[in-house]
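Technical annex B. To support the medicinal chemistry partners, we prepared a structural model of the target in complex with NAP, based solely on the information shown next.
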Amino acid sequence: MKFENILVLGGSGFVGRHVVASLVARGARVTVPSRRRERARHLLLLPTVDVVECDVNRREALAALVAGRDAVVNLVGILHGPGFARAHVELPQALLEACRTHKVRRLLHMSALGASLDAPSEYLRSKGAGEQAVLGAKDLDATVFRPSVIFGPEDDFLNKFVELAAMMPVLALPRLEARFQPVYVRDVAQVMLGALEESKSFGRAYDLCGPKAYSLRELVETACRISGRRRPLLGLPDSLAYLLALLLELAPGAPLMSRDNLRSMQVESVCDCSLPFGVAAQEIEAVAPAWLARIGPRQRYSVFRWRARR
Ligand SMILES: NC(=O)c1ccc[n+]([C@@H]2O[C@H](COP(=O)([O-])OP(=O)(O)OC[C@H]3O[C@@H](n4cnc5c(N)ncnc54)[C@H](OP(=O)(O)O)[C@@H]3O)[C@@H](O)[C@H]2O)c1
C-alpha cells in the first residue's frame, strides 16, 4: 500500500520538522496538529502540509484527525514532568483506540533508547509503558523507534552547550561520565521514511544510534571546539547536581535540567547496531560544523526564537 495521507502528531517539534519535510518531499499530504498553530509556523510554507490547531489529548479531536488517514506518526514527547503519563502512555493508548475505530493500521511511534518499565526515571518508565502498549497492538502494523539523543541544527542539546559556553568562562555540569551515542535528526527522519512501507518493520522496535559513543564530557568538548569556544569543564558532584536541578525545577518555565533528567542519565544511551533501511549514520564532526561553527549573534537569535517557538 502507498501511504499518501499521513497524520503526524508532534510534527511541530524538532524531529517533526524533518520527518514532515521528508514525507512532503516524497509526495505525501501531511496533517500536523498543534496546540498552538503559531508553533508550527515553519511548516506552513511546505506545499502539502495542513497545520490544524487542536489538542490531541481530547479523544474526539484525536479520532477526527485519525479518520481517513493511510498512516499515523506519533512524535509527541516531553522531557520534563508533570504530564509524562499523559503524553507518553495515555495519548498512545488513545491513538491505538482511534486507529482501531477508523481502521488505520499503520503507526510509527517514537520512543527513546533505554525506555523500560523498570528504568530509574519517570521519563524512561513512561516511554517504556507507551512503547509496550504500541508493540502489544498485534491487530495494527506498528513500528517503534528508540533513538539515543538526537542532534541537528535546531536541537536543544549541542546548541545548548554552545550557548552556555558563550555565557560562561567555565562549564559546571553533572554526570560528565554519562554515555550517549547521538544520532542525526535527518538520519532519524530517513529511517522512519524507510520503515513506513516496509512490512518487515511491522511489530518491531529499532534502536537508533549514531556511529560514535561519547561521554557527556567528550560531547561538550566537541560542541565547544566546533563552535570555537573551548571552555574548562567542571564535574558537579551528584548531591550538588540534584540540589541545582531541584532549584531549576522551582523556577518558572521549562527547567534547564530536572532531577528526572539526572536519573535518566544513569542509563547508558548507547547501542551497537547500525541504522536500518540502508541509512548511513552521520557523525557530529561531519555535519554539526554547518550550524555550530557559524553561530554568531544573528543566528543565535533565530535559534532562541525557534526554541521559544516564536
Ligand atoms: N530530541 C531528542 O534528543 C530525542 C531523543 C529521544 C527520543 N525523542 C523523542 O522524539 C520525539 C520528538 O522529540 P522532539 O525533540 O522533536 O520534541 P519537541 O521538539 O519538544 O516536540 C514535541 C512535540 O510534541 C508535542 N507535544 C508536547 N507535549 C504535548 C502534549 N502534552 N500533548 C500534545 N502534544 C504535545 C508538541 O506539539 P505542540 O505544537 O502542540 O506544542 C511538539 O510538536 C519525542 O517523543 C521525544 O520523546 C527525542
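Notes passed to the chemistry partners:
The chain has a mean pLDDT of 94.
Residues 10, 12-16, 34-36, 39-40, 56-57, 75-78, 83, 86-87, 110, 112, 147, 149-150 surround NAP (CB under 6 Å).
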